[in-house]
Amino acid sequence: LHTPMYFFLLNLSLLDLGSISTTVPKAMANSLWDTRAISYAGCAAQLFLFVFLLSAEYFLLTVMAYDRYVAICKPLHYGTLLGSRACVHMAAAAWGSGFLYAVLHTANTFSLPFCRGNVVDQFFCEIPQILKLACSGAYLREVGVLVVAVGLAVGCFVFIVLSYGQIFRAVLRIPSEQGQHKAFSTCLPHLAVVSLFIMVSMYVSTGMIAYLKPPSICSPSLDLVVAVLCSLVPPVVNPLIYSMRNRQLKNALRKL
């Protein structure tokens, strides 16, 4: 775990573990005890942790794109550009950015006046469902935070696309087919995880746009699909994607 890629994978695993642990255990407990109750402080904490871990994962995937870019395009400088101190700083920047964004989102959401009951129509506390409880027109304050979110997301997405553009150019210049295959295989897991995360983000964006419409237009089925995709799919699938490169795991699956 001392090499840059596995150091970032360690951080990604911690984020995935934390993300799924924020929502699933409480939902399971509520199901077993036939209750849907959660305290105000518990709801705020759940919302903060979920936004924090999800946004930090997106920032970390952006950092990992830079890691793959240096590994493929500047291999001789890999040890210099991605030393242990640089890796720690980049990982800390991803965690810190996610933390600040979660503070902004949570503070903005729970500063709204609520006058539409106290029933969150979802299996965990999420921003769109809480906005439905806000007084008429008050949820429009969330638009400013969403603009910041879109700006950050687009910036990270552009950086990832540019990085992989350079990676593909460098790989196609490799004369041997075996060398191209080896270079592509080092990027394939990260590219798969990024693609999955972007697809989930698109679903989430669609859901957030729907939440800003009048309640009569909103679809409960869309709400549930967005929540499941956002909270369960990435933490479950990410370890499988990266584990497929592990030879021992492949052999165990073949035997199974």
Automatic annotation (TrEMBL):
<dbReference type="InterPro" id="IPR017452">
    <property type="entry name" value="GPCR_Rhodpsn_7TM"/>
</dbReference>
<keyword id="KW-0552">Olfaction</keyword>
<feature type="domain" description="G-protein coupled receptors family 1 profile">
    <location>
        <begin position="1"/>
        <end position="242"/>
    </location>
</feature>
<dbReference type="InterPro" id="IPR000725">
    <property type="entry name" value="Olfact_rcpt"/>
</dbReference>
<comment type="similarity">
    <text>Belongs to the G-protein coupled receptor 1 family.</text>
</comment>
<dbReference type="GO" id="GO:0005886">
    <property type="term" value="C:plasma membrane"/>
</dbReference>
<keyword id="KW-0732">Signal</keyword>
<keyword id="KW-0297">G-protein coupled receptor</keyword>
<dbReference type="InterPro" id="IPR050516">
    <property type="entry name" value="Olfactory_GPCR"/>
</dbReference>
<dbReference type="GO" id="GO:0004984">
    <property type="term" value="F:olfactory receptor activity"/>
</dbReference>
<feature type="transmembrane region" description="Helical">
    <location>
        <begin position="82"/>
        <end position="104"/>
    </location>
</feature>
<feature type="transmembrane region" description="Helical">
    <location>
        <begin position="224"/>
        <end position="244"/>
    </location>
</feature>
<comment type="function">
    <text>Odorant receptor.</text>
</comment>
<protein>
    <recommendedName>
        <fullName>Olfactory receptor</fullName>
    </recommendedName>
</protein>
<keyword id="KW-1133">Transmembrane helix</keyword>
<feature type="transmembrane region" description="Helical">
    <location>
        <begin position="188"/>
        <end position="212"/>
    </location>
</feature>
<keyword id="KW-0812">Transmembrane</keyword>
<feature type="signal peptide">
    <location>
        <begin position="1"/>
        <end position="20"/>
    </location>
</feature>
<feature type="transmembrane region" description="Helical">
    <location>
        <begin position="37"/>
        <end position="61"/>
    </location>
</feature>
<keyword id="KW-0716">Sensory transduction</keyword>
<dbReference type="Pfam" id="PF13853">
    <property type="entry name" value="7tm_4"/>
</dbReference>
<keyword id="KW-1003">Cell membrane</keyword>
<keyword id="KW-0807">Transducer</keyword>
<keyword id="KW-0472">Membrane</keyword>
<keyword id="KW-0675">Receptor</keyword>
<feature type="transmembrane region" description="Helical">
    <location>
        <begin position="143"/>
        <end position="167"/>
    </location>
</feature>
<dbReference type="InterPro" id="IPR000276">
    <property type="entry name" value="GPCR_Rhodpsn"/>
</dbReference>
<dbReference type="GO" id="GO:0004930">
    <property type="term" value="F:G protein-coupled receptor activity"/>
</dbReference>
